[in-house]
Amino acid sequence: MSFDSSVCLALLKEGGMTETYLVAIDLGKRHFQVCATDETGKTLFNRAFSRQKLQEFLDQLPACIVAMEACATSHHWGRIGLAAGHEVRLIPPIYVKPFVKRQKNDAADAEAIAEAARRPNLRFVAVKSAEHQARAVTFRTHQCFVKQRTQLINALRGHLAEFGVIAPGGATNVKQLEQAIREEGTDLPAVVREMARFYLEQIAALTIRIDELVQQLQLASRTDSFLRRLCTVPGVGPVTAGAIAAFAPDLRTFSNGRNFAAWLGLVPKQHSSGGKTRLGGMSRMGQEDIRKLLIVGAMSCIRWICRRGTNPDNWLGRLLARKPRMVAAVALANKMARAIWAMVVKQQDYRTA
Asked: Does the pLDDT at position 15 exceed 80?
């Protein structure tokens, strides 16, 4: 049951906490749990709010710290909190989990957010602007259409394989399937031909949209100085540069390039204890989209080197001589991430030497 925001404001005023306190919000779709604490950490109230009442409460609340988990809709509410004059702290959910006491419910989650937000050494997520999130929508739309096209192609290949029509995977080989469907000599029932045409129409429509989005990314990479600088890195194209611009925060918030690579999950997972350092595989605890594209770009660079038949006498060549290609690709992606951080912070283009 939602609580009246005016009652909560009255409780805060009665408690004398009109200047310094912290408000933790457990986000939801229609109902939001709000936990208010004083300067000492004592809970003033822990109540449920509706969407409309929460916005009214934030607008009328005196300036304070507003803490939330960095999850869906958190940046939207973060912008509302900033507009109302509050200090907004977005906390990664993995940092909140240790503070949840016993049973998990909305009240316990809000109290855990309040506890986590008070930690002096906790790292917070920067609130993204609406323009920053708009870039992410374009990239996500491109990725969604690519996945849908791949799904349709695989479904069509699977259906036609039942009738002896075989073609390699990938969007470039759809023409082989289209040619086989049009040939009168192919032993296909009329219903299968009709259904296959439906598939081909959907694939063609998605291909047009995908090409349009790629053209937008390419145009932006030529006109935007930030994207143009990122594209100077070998293995980084317009799509990867667009993903970095859409999902990465201001790179100046990272103290060095290794922290940026760790944020992407491109560093080894540690199992160290007792002074003994044990490093495992890639942690994968970071931004998945950028990490995947950097590894794909690194693998393309490695394939280009391997086609030449000789490994260069440099760091990458020596690494390829003793490690598998995928391990070398992850190491190269880590190095690319560090180079990108240095380029952005120092406002310089990529240099080979």
From this structure: no
**CATH number of the domain bearing residue 89:** 3.30.420.10
DSSP code at position 251? G
Higher-confidence residue of 208 and 17: namely: 208
Is residue 278 a contact partner of residue 272, using CB atoms and an 8 Å limit? yes
Cα 163 to Cα 185: distance, rounded to the nearest angstrom: 13
Q: Which residue has the higher pLDDT, 21 or 8?
A: 21
pLDDT at 19: 54
Same domain, 158 and 201: yes
57 contact partners, CB below 8 Å, separation of at least 6:
5, 8, 9, 34, 49
Whether 135 and 155 have beta carbons less than 8 Å apart is answered as no
CA 108 to CA 113: how far, in whole Å?
9
Q: Give the count of domains, the chain.
A: 3
Cα 92 versus chain centre, distance? 13
DSSP label at residue 185: T
Residues 6+ apart with CB under 8 A from 325: 299, 302, 306
Domain-embedded: residue 123:
no
Distance, CA of 338 to CA of 327 (rounded, Å): 17
**Hey, what are 266's tokens?**
């491109």
What confidence score (pLDDT) does residue 14 get?
54
Query: Which range of residues forms the domain containing residue 171?
Result: 131-223
CA dist 69 and 100 (Å) reads 13
**Does 333 score more than 90 pLDDT?**
yes
